[in-house]
Design a protein that fits this description.
2 helices, 103 residues, globular, alpha+beta, four-stranded antiparallel beta sheet
């Protein structure tokens, strides 16, 4: 699903990183700015951005800000995707209806 080589985890101290996979959006952010030693990853359904998605629709986990921590985060993201494939698929379909109905 996500290639960790494409995630600038060292940069999470400065900037958040986000993306999506088949209806599941994800958002990663260092927990304490430039002195971060951990980062949090959230998953939530399409179509809205992190800030516009209600908190009750988000799930999160925290990991060490390290190569091993990024491995753990990628495993967690894959687990969350597999565990809720139907939810993510519905959100992707809903997103298409939202876009089609906005014309």
């Amino acid at each position: 699903m996500i290639d960790k080589r494409l995630v600038p985890y060292g940069g999470l101290k400065k900037e958040p990183f986000s993306g999506s996979h088949n209806g599941m959006r994800y958002y990663m952010n260092g927990d304490d700015g430039k002195s971060s030693t951990t980062f949090t990853v959230w998953v939530y359904p399409e179509p809205w951005c992190f800030e516009q998605t209600p908190d009750e629709d988000k799930e999160s986990a925290t990991f060490p800000l390290s190569d091993e921590g990024m491995d753990q985060a990628i495993v967690w993201l894959n687990e969350r995707y597999e565990a809720e494939k139907e939810r993510w698929g519905r959100s992707l379909q809903d997103m298409m209806h939202t876009i089609a109905n906005s014309d």
